[in-house]
Amino acid sequence: MKSSEMEAQLYCIHCNNNTPHVITYINEKMKHIECEECHNAIEFKVDIMKELYKEVYDRISTKPSRITEEYKQGLDEFLSKIPIRVISKPYRLIRYLNQSYKIIKQYKK
Ligand SMILES: [Zn+2]
């Protein structure tokens, strides 16, 4: 078992604002999201989440192979691309997580 954490700005229904959230992964699977402001937390135990886990995992897991391919094309080119890649990819992932979070919120009602 491997546990890792990621920080992201997500919309918190309790704070009614975008706040820093800590996302905890267990074996690359999203397990827990907690608002750092009010400590409202969401645990993923529902079966519907398996599909979401898979999607999120696929998005994360395709990243290293893409970077490796680009690495082969040339180190200089690769290094010049890093700042944009590092910023844009997590941002897209965060946007995706924000969308998913809204779906989870609706599902829980
Ligand atoms: Zn909050």
From TrEMBL:
<protein>
    <submittedName>
        <fullName>Bh protein</fullName>
    </submittedName>
</protein>
